[in-house]
Structures are given as structure tokens and as C-alpha cells.
Design brief:
Elements (H helix, E strand, L loop, with lengths): L1 H22 L5 H15 L1 H7 L5 H25 L5 H7 L2 H13 L6 H20 L17 H21 L5 H23 L2 H7 L3 H29 L2 H4 L6 H11 L6 H19 L2
Length: about 290
């Protein structure tokens, strides 16, 4: 069952990067991030209202931490990165989630950090340097028409947040159902995201007047529904059924799905990108196999 969930998650999340790219054709990164979180929170609002009264007070702070660093902030960072970074490369860099899951687990939750795991972490970071500094941004086929490999740093920061969130859910929110964790987590961050979207951005004006706005919104709504609401429930279930590291190992397949969608959309992918991806995934493999 765990492997089935892993494959489903890899497919859903691997598709999320091309959906962000399509949404960014009309909406800004801030609008996309806020819309993604708001729609997901509204979809699960009935479940949140059902479960929020059953949550122990001591757990709300951990739900808030996981929600902010593992969902809210990454939603903006990934969108901002993809304004100048090919969607396929964004999907490959997402594999660094495993690296930071291990690092956070070792630093804050007592997970053992062996020499082999240090090697895996090092390879992951080296692969990132090879991919971005030698391979570049993946061309100018981005929503802004410009490429900038340094925007990969935003994904690096986002995967750090993912690493924190995975460990918090595993070690601090055990016993809660996956739906309760996801719905209440989104309830806590959904309100601020929706308020910002409606008051602090031009989202409503663009939706009413910009050419192609409803199509772009459709991509974002699909992203929110599948990659945020549904995938988060499945991921939280996977975390509870396995280890934090196993749950994050969907990153093996996410790059393949993301690159396939990118290639279909005409994105460039050179030998340096391939070399960087191989080095990153080799590091991830070593992390998982190391004892």
C-alpha cells in the first residue's frame, strides 16, 4: 500500500510544476501562491470544521509550523522560482527534500547521521551546483520569457521547509488522522492567504479582465485540488505508515514526471542538467540505503 501511495504522489506532484508554469502566464507568483493555498483550504474547510474541535491545544503550534514552512511559504517560493526557471528543472530540484528531511531529522529530532548519509547530502548539494551553475536555467521558455539559474535558490529554501514539515508531522502530530492534519493545517494558513489574495493583489481584476485568465485559474485550481489538498492527505497518510525518509522518497520519480511534461512543452534540457540530476538522485539513493 505504501508503494502505491508513493507512485500516486509522484505522479501528482510531478505534474504540479507544469501547472504552475501555465498559471504564471497570467497571474503573478504571489497571486498563484495565495490562490493555491486559498482554494485548497476552501476545499477542505468542511473537514477542518469537523476536526478542529478534536485537536489538542498543544498541537496547534506544530500544525501552524508545518503549515507555514511546509505549505504556505513553499507555494510562493516555487511559483517565484518558476518565473525564470524551467518547470522540469524545478521538479528535479524538488528531490532535495530528502536531503533536508534527513538534515532536519538529525539536527532536531535525533536521527542518526552516518558517514554515508553525509556523503549523500554532499552529493545532493553538488548535483544542485552542477545543474544550475553549469547547466543554466533551462532556457528562456518561462512565463516571463527570461531565464535565471539563481532562482533555483528559492526552491532550495522551499525544500528546507519541506524537510522541517515532514519531521514535524512524523514526530509531533502522530495519532491525528491524515485528513485532520491536512484540513486543520490548511485552515490555519488559508485565512491569511485568502485575505492577502483578495486585498493585496490584482487577482480579481485579472480574473475579470485579463485574456486567458480563467484558463490560467483552471490550472491553478487543479494544482490546489490535486497537488495541495489531495496530495497532502495522501502524503500525511504515507508519513504515518512509514518513516519520514521513505515518505519523501517520491522525489525519485517526481523529476521524471516533471521533465516529461517540460519536454512536451518545449523546455530545454542539456547534458549538465542530466549530470546534475544523476548526482542528486545518487545522493538521495545513498541517503535511503545508508544505515
Amino acid at each position: 500500500m505504501a508503494w502505491v501511495l508513493l507512485l500516486v504522489l509522484a505522479t501528482i506532484w510531478g505534474t504540479s510544476f507544469i501547472l504552475m508554469k501555465k498559471g504564471l502566464v497570467v497571474f503573478s507568483a504571489m497571486e498563484l501562491g495565495a490562490t493555491r493555498v486559498s482554494v485548497a483550504a476552501l476545499l477542505l474547510l468542511p473537514f477542518a470544521l469537523r476536526h478542529v474541535g478534536t485537536v489538542e491545544r498543544s498541537r496547534f503550534k506544530w500544525l501552524a509550523v508545518s503549515g507555514v514552512v511546509g505549505t504556505l511559504i513553499p507555494a510562493f517560493l516555487f511559483a517565484y522560482a518558476e518565473t525564470k526557471l524551467a518547470s522540469g528543472l524545478a521538479g528535479v530540484l524538488n528531490a532535495l527534500t530528502v536531503v533536508f528531511t534527513l538534515l532536519v531529522g538529525a539536527l532536531l529530532f535525533g536521527q542518526r547521521l552516518t558517514a554515508l548519509r553525509v556523503l549523500g547530502i554532499t552529493l545532493g548539494l553538488v548535483g544542485t551546483v552542477v545543474m544550475l551553475l553549469l547547466g543554466g536555467s533551462g532556457g528562456t521558455d518561462t512565463p516571463t520569457g527570461e531565464g535565471n539559474a539563481w532562482y533555483g535558490i528559492y526552491i532550495l529554501i522551499a525544500t528546507m521547509g519541506y524537510g522541517v514539515s515532514v519531521n514535524v508531522i512524523k514526530h509531533k502530530l502522530g495519532g491525528m488522522t491524515p485528513m485532520a492534519v491536512t484540513a486543520v493545517l490548511l485552515l490555519l494558513i488559508g485565512g491569511p492567504a485568502l485575505a492577502y489574495l483578495l486585498v493585496g493583489t490584482d487577482f480579481l481584476h485579472k480574473l475579470a479582465n485579463a485574456p486567458g485568465a480563467w484558463v490560467a485559474f483552471g490550472y491553478i485550481a487543479l494544482l490546489a485540488t490535486m497537488s495541495t489538498a489531495v496530495a497532502m492527505v495522501l502524503f500525511n497518510k504515507l508519513i504515518q505508515q512509514s518513516t519520514a525518509l521513505f515518505a519523501s522518497s517520491s522525489t525519485y520519480l517526481i523529476p521524471i514526471v516533471a521533465l516529461a511534461w517540460g519536454a512536451l512543452d518545449g523546455e530545454a534540457f542539456n547534458l549538465w542538467h542530466f549530470a546534475g540530476m544523476v548526482i542528486i538522485l545518487a545522493g538521495v539513493l545513498i541517503i535511503h540505503r545508508a544505515k
